[in-house]
Structure formats: structure tokens, C-alpha cells
Amino acid sequence: MELYGTTKPSCGKKLKQDAGVDDRKPPDNNKALLKKISKNNDDNESSNFTNKKEQNRKSVGLQKKYQSYTHWRSSCYITSLLELLYTNYLHTIPWWSANVGIIPKNTGLKNLYISFTIRDTVNTPGAKNIKSTLNEAREIIRRHVLEEKWEEDNQFGSLTQWFVNIISEEKKSITLMSQLCVLGLRMWSCRSGHFKISPTPIRPLFPINGVEEFNSAFFNNNQNLIGQVSTLFLQRNQLISKIFPDQPCPYNRANLHQCTNREISYEEYIISLPHTLIFEVTQRDGYNYNLSNQLNFPFQLGYQEDGVSMEFMLTARVYSTSSSGQHFYSEVIRSFNDQSGVYKYDDLNDGMAVLESEDLTSLSGCKPRTVLVSYRSNDSDSHSIYSNIRTS
Ligand SMILES: [Zn+2]
């Protein structure tokens, strides 16, 4: 049914020529893209021929493409996410070098940092052997994934599992976790005042179960906001409070004494937001991704409460070519010479990322088969203010 959906090794070279057919945006068709861009410029300038110089400056200004990881052994489940992570890393290099660079052990996160620093060298003017440098950067991660037996060689892997595993290796470090994960607390209590408190599961991805995520009373009363990720984010930052009508008191589990209360109140509260915030449109029954068609990811994601104002900017997305995964590719916002554009990276396009749009907001909105969407924080001070308010 799907181009990539038949057999596991179908991520291979034989499909290269078909890489862009499925989504009708050929990743390797530079001619059509250039034609489109020059047409746009013609439209803009048609009434003003004297502005030719400006037009030329503009058309050479924004880089049309850049080299990234080439296809190798069905590793698009690694490289498409690496592309997203690297894009975010570029906004937080000082944090990575000060906090991850100093990790003495050869952990997955340290390897991720080493991989990024190797990749950094291709951005220097006159860099040579760019493809082999990028191969080296990719192999550091791929070898780690294979050595840890998270995936098998030459097979499709899970887009998110290897990264979640890398992060959970470090879960004892609050410094690292608070940069990369949403941290929160959960509390259960019964009418007699027995309670249990524990952290929310530490994961680097903020899950969204498709539009089913919008099933709260608030969204039932505001049906026009269903699918608006900005509203979901505001809701999630509030205290989540539920009553479970029939659950055992948390005291019973500890065998301290018998409590017969069955009505348990549950509260969940975010205490820290990461600098790199990654939403995951989750998989249903561990297999098919939930539909993203109605999920509207904004360009800016804001949060305000008394004394704190936070803002996140859209940086990248990863897509699958079918609802079950199979092949993954990315769109990222990258800057070159102080100009930014939206680039599409698909390893089947010889690892070449191609300029798709100069309109950065074109990366926002509802897009089918979206699996991951990342944001970067605009201001790191607001994070500590936020955490201070929430833990005081
Ligand atoms: Zn109790």
C-alpha cells in the first residue's frame, strides 16, 4: 500500500528515485524548487525592474541546500531524529559543552555530544570530506544503539526508543534532566489524608495521543480548541486534578494499615520545563502513529503566569512516510549567514537537505504523519523562575 510499507529493508537504495513521490514534494528536485523561488521573486519585483540587484542579493543570500547524513543501513530512524536534535543543539551549544561535555563516561548522551561536535566541523568554511565526517558523526550513535542492543543492524528501528533510552541512562542527574525533560510531581490522596507522592515518569518527549489527548472537560466545553497544541500546553501547565471513584488507598500498598477509602484524588503538576521541548505524536498499540492531521503546532508556544513568561520557538519536525513508521524524514529551521529557512532533510536524497521555504512559519500548523515536533526556549532565565514559583 505504502511505498515504504512492504518489507523492513525497503528503506534501501532501490527506492531512491521514488523518495519524494509519496508526499508530492520531490526532495531531489532542485530545478522545480529554484524555478518556484525565482517565480516568487519575479512576482515580487515585476513592477520594479530597477530592483534587480536586490533580487540577486536575495536569491544568492539564503543557502539552497546543505549536506547532512547520507543513507546507510536503514538508519533513517536515527538520522531523522539526529537532524532535529542537532538543530536544537545549535541553539544551546554552551549548555551542551558545559554539562554534557564533562561527563567522564562513554554514555549515550556523551556520544550524542561527541557526534554533534564532529558534525560542527562541517560548518567551518572550506571543510573537506564532509560526507565522511557526517558518516563518522552518525556511526558514533548507530554503534551505540547496536551495542546496547536497542535495535538490530540493517533493520528499521523505533524513531524514539533509542533516544528515550539514552536520556534514561542519565535520569539521576537533575541538571541534565531539567534541560531535556518535562519534570513533574504526582500525588494520590484519600479522604483520611493518606497520601503518596512521586515524580512523573521522566521522558524526553511530551506525548500527545492524537486528538484523543483533547478529552478533558475544558475541551468538551471549547470544542473549537480541540487540536490546538498551544491550548493543550497551557492546560498541561495547570494543576491536573482528577478523582478516581474506585481505587485502593495508597497506604494499603505499603501494608502499613488497612484503609477502606476507595475514592482517591489525584493531582499532577509540572515543576520544570526543558529548554528543548519535543512533542511526540504517540503510537497506538505500539504500532500505528496517532493521526497528526488535526494537531495544530504553532510557531510560538507561550506560557504566562504570575511573575513568569516563557516562550518557545518552533525548530524542527520529523515525519513518517506511513502511519506505521517505515521511513522517516525531517524538516528543520536552519540559519546560514544570518538568514534562516525551512529545509527538508531525507537521507534517501543522498543526505542533502533542501531549502523548502523562506517563510519560517510554514513549518507550523497541521501536517499529516508528523511524529515529532521540537521547540527551543527563547530565554533560559525564565525556566528557573518558573521552577522556583512552582516548587515554593
Ligand atoms: Zn487512606
Task: Summarize the structure in short.
This protein is of the alpha+beta class. It has helices spanning 30-45, 52-61, 76-89, 93-100, 108-120, 130-147, 161-168, 174-180, 217-221, 229-236, 250-253, 381-391, and strands at residues 65-67, 183-189, 195-199, 205-208, 240-244, 264-272, 276-281, 283-284, 288-289, 300-305, 308-322, 325-336, 339-345, 352-357, 370-377.
Give the cofactors and ligands: zinc ion
Order of helices and strands: HHEHHHHHHEEEHHEHEEEEEEEEEEH
Structural shape: globular
Give the helix proportion (percent range): 25-40%
Q: How many extended strands? A: 15
Largest sheet properties = 9 strands, mixed
Structural class: alpha+beta
Approximately how much beta-strand content do the residues carry? 15-25%
Overall pLDDT score: 82
Number of H/I helices: 12
**Rg, alpha carbons:** 23 Å
Q: End-to-end distance, in Å? A: 54 Å
Q: Which consecutive residue ranges, at least 5 long each, have pLDDT under 50?
A: 1-50
Topology (SSEs and partners):
Layout: H1 30-45, H2 52-61, E1 65-67, H3 76-89, H4 93-100, H5 108-120, H6 130-147, H7 161-168, H8 174-180, E2 183-189, E3 195-199, E4 205-208, H9 217-221, H10 229-236, E5 240-244, H11 250-253, E6 264-272, E7 276-281, E8 283-284, E9 288-289, E10 300-305, E11 308-322, E12 325-336, E13 339-345, E14 352-357, E15 370-377, H12 381-391
Parallel strand pairs: 4-7
Antiparallel strand pairs: 1-14, 2-3, 2-6, 5-6, 7-15, 8-9, 10-11, 11-12, 11-15, 12-13, 13-14
Zinc ion (ZN) is lined by residues 190, 192, 194, 249, 251, 259, 261.
